[in-house]
Write a structure and sequence with these properties.
With 235 residues, the chain is α/β, with parallel strands linked by helices. The protein has 2 domains: 121 residues, Rossmann fold; 102 residues, Arc Repressor Mutant, subunit A. 40% of the residues lie in helices and 24% in strands. The strands form 4 sheets. The chain has a 5-stranded parallel beta sheet, with helices on both faces. The longest helix is centred in the middle third of the chain and has 16 residues. The radius of gyration is 18 Å and the shape is elongated. About 6% of the residues have low confidence.
Length: 235
């Protein structure tokens, strides 16, 4: 059974969400504060975290950052409708998706299922190959990215985007092509944030994100994942 953690100070909302998700075969555990939520998230064992950005004892964005620094668990943010800046910052610091309040529980379930499907796909044989580009290794089976053998954490969206780029190394891909290859479904958070995700990926895998050698912007065209990335690379 899918085990979820909801960090939300509205007890009635959490109870309603828990009842709805329970009918879909998911269990929801609830924490009402940032402090309790962080402790629970870092204990592990959850398939995803649903995080409200408005908490009584802390900033939800900082809580998202703290969880992501120590855990790769998928994070779905709940934001106030119209707070676009918070949504962008949340994606930049590692959230996988967002949902504005008030929301339909059916949409929350759909978004959670999309996140969980991406994680479940990591065991497929078609993705078991490791792509290597100099010091960079992309293990599609384990959904891990390593530079010089050191793992670099990425969200589910970011890993899928990196794979889409790397599988077409040397070819320019437009933002529209990347969305078609990665999203699978009409996820608003991804549709409007290709550049945000690329920036986050660069921060994780580039030696100098301001002067990228792995993912290069082609002005007016899109992005290209370069075949030759390190100065001492032979191929």
């Amino acid at each position: 059974m899918t085990r979820l953690l909801m960090i939300e100070d509205d007890h009635a909302l959490a109870e309603m969400v828990g009842t709805y998700l329970g009918r879909a075969g998911m269990t929801l555990e609830h924490r009402e504060s940032a402090e309790a939520g962080l402790a629970a998230a870092l204990e592990g064992g959850y398939d995803a975290v649903v995080l409200d950005l408005m908490l009584p004892d802390g900033d939800g964005l900082e809580l998202c950052r703290a969880i992501r620094a120590r855990s790769g668990v998928p994070i779905l943010m709940l934001t106030a409708r119209g707070d676009e800046a918070d949504r962008i910052v949340g994606l930049e610091i590692g959230a996988d998706d967002y949902l504005p309040k008030p929301f339909n529980p059916r949409e929350l379930l759909a978004r959670l299922r999309a996140i969980l499907r991406r994680r479940a796909s990591e065991g497929s044989g078609a993705q078991g190959e490791t792509l290597r580009f100099g010091r960079l290794a992309i293990d599609r089976g384990a959904r891990r990215v390593l530079v010089d053998g050191e793992e670099r954490p990425l969200t589910g969206h970011q890993f899928d985007l990196l794979c889409a780029l790397a599988e077409s190394a040397g070819r320019v891909l437009s933002r529209e092509q990347l969305m078609d290859r990665v999203r699978g479904e009409a996820l608003e958070a991804f549709d409007r944030s290709i550049d945000v995700h690329v920036s986050r990926i660069r921060a994780a895998i580039e030696d100098d994100p301001k002067r990228p050698r792995r993912i290069v912007t082609m002005r007016g065209a899109g992005y290209v994942f370069t075949r030759r990335q390190d100065e001492d690379e032979d191929t």
